[in-house]
Specification:
By secondary structure, this protein is of the alpha/beta class. It has a single domain (4-176), classed as 3-Layer(aba) Sandwich (Rossmann fold), CATH 3.40.50. The chain has helices at 20-30, 59-62, 65-78, 101-121, 140-145, 156-165; strands at residues 4-14, 34-38, 124-132, 148-152, 168-170, 174-176. Strands 2-3-1-4 form a four-stranded parallel sheet, sandwiched between helices. The longest helix has 21 residues, at 101-121. The model has no long low-confidence stretch (mean pLDDT 77). InterPro entries: P-loop_NTPase. This is P-loop containing nucleoside triphosphate hydrolase protein.
């Protein structure tokens, strides 16, 4: 008898540079059967009418919402999270932000215990989709597909410092913060 696949979709949101991608990658390494689903921006972001730059900050047009919703609905219906979900994150600087080994081991142990409980309780195989982005809680249809929501908070000074460390970002084209963008 084959196991039924049960998807669990987790939203990881917060301001830009708050640590969402880092948390998602750490969770992916600790959780079996998981994949990071980046909330990539639309291919062609609109141009801001005043600043004449790509407009990441207008939520209705920054993300291809129908495409993201369709993708998440398909994940929930089929229980399959395609590994080919396109993301450009691998082209960005990949800084290693390690977790203390005892903390990592504790969480890995906790997750293994939970999986062992589920294994004895039924015939389900759990897969996890970690939806990471700065706008996952803007669209009610996306929220409806999430089984769990995480929101990262960080101080203004912390955000500012992280942003100035990473002012170049690849999303299909190279983005460089214009002068005073963060401010």
């Amino acid at each position: 008898m084959s196991k039924k696949t049960r998807p669990i979709v987790v939203g990881i949101g917060g301001a830009r540079c708050s640590g969402k991608t880092t948390l998602a990658k750490h969770l992916q390494r600790m959780l079996p059967n998981s994949i990071v689903i980046h909330q990539d921006p639309q291919e062609l972001l609109p141009i801001h009418p005043v600043h004449n730059i790509r407009d990441w900050d207008t939520a209705p047009s920054a993300i291809d919402w129908p495409r993201l919703v369709e993708f998440l609905v398909k994940v929930k219906v089929t229980g399959e999270i395609p590994v080919h979900h396109r993301s450009y994150d691998h082209l960005n600087e990949q800084r290693d932000l390690p977790i203390q080994s005892e903390v990592r081991d504790q969480w890995v142990g906790t997750f293994k215990s939970l999986l062992a409980e589920r294994a004895t309780a039924g015939d389900e195989e759990i897969v996890r989709g970690l939806v990471e982005g700065f706008l996952p809680y803007w669209n009610p249809e996306v929220i409806a597909q999430l089984d769990m929501r995480i929101y990262l908070r960080i101080s203004h000074d912390g955000l500012c410092g992280h942003r100035h460390e990473r002012c170049d970002y690849y999303t299909g084209t190279l983005w460089h913060d214009p002068p005073n963008y963060w401010e």
